[in-house]
Amino acid sequence: MNKISLQKNRRQTFRRPRLLIIGCGDVGMRMLPLLTPHFRVFAVTSQPARCAELRALGAQPVVADLDQPASLRRLRGLAHTVLHLAPPAAQGVQDVRTRHLCAILPERAQVVYVSTTGVYGDCGGARFDETRPVAPSTPRARRRVDAEQVLRQWALHANGKLAILRVPGIYAAERLPLARLQAATPALSADEDVHTNHIHADDLARIVVAALFRARPQRIYHAVDDSAMKMGEYFDAVADACALPRPPRLPRAELRQVVTPALLSFMSESRQLDNRRLRRELGVRLRYPTVQAFLQQVGRRA
């Protein structure tokens, strides 16, 4: 590229609207190629060592830490479009990080927040849409509900535009439970198994971008695929596709004795989320509509 072309590209980049990504991890990195043609992207990281990686994908890194409010001052007014993908801290009953972020958000900003389907708690396997009330049963899920409420209050008082994406278990080729299968960690017996929901990381990246352009103000969306699986069926399908033994099955009473409380909590909530709003309003066509569709590709490559 000659000097004149380089200068032209720089001018075009600086003219694009600014967008700020909070929590640019795996999904955020998958979003960058979709965003950089339209926005001048600023990506917040608390790790200076990641700056080169972010620059390589066209983002301008900003070193800041949601746990250190003073470090966020440089973000004030930086962008009116914000993608909030950062999880709450591991402790506490509130999401202090989201509170710190809201303190520096400008009025009339647009925010897309990536939350979790865990806010619903155990639903006994019921299938439902976004109108169902939340009923979090773990501290982690209660912090997510707190984040959603704080963002809603910010949007109300600052005349902001907010979209909340409730996200289930995220999978990808690099995010399959292979270590668990190799360790032969047991799953629940079929008669006690729980319904789970899934989304591929690439599809989630596309959903976040679609919400940025098409979401209705103050709207919640289920960012889930079309899979109808129980947890043990998911482990079995991954095991079959990757030529690994299927996990042993145990009744819940026995499983409680051999798995961690954190793992057991994931096996204690059963729900099936409707994604029709995602399709109707955001116009999303999933690249991997089911886990099985993705695993067929894994099996062919194996």
UniProtKB/TrEMBL annotation:
Gene3D superfamilies named in the record: NAD(P)-binding Rossmann-like Domain (3.40.50.720)
What sections of the sequence does the record tag as coiled-coil? none
Per UniProt, residues of the RmlD-like substrate binding domain are 108-286
Classify the source by domain of life: Bacteria
Domain RCK N-terminal stretches: 20-75
- Protein's UniProt name: Sugar nucleotide-binding protein
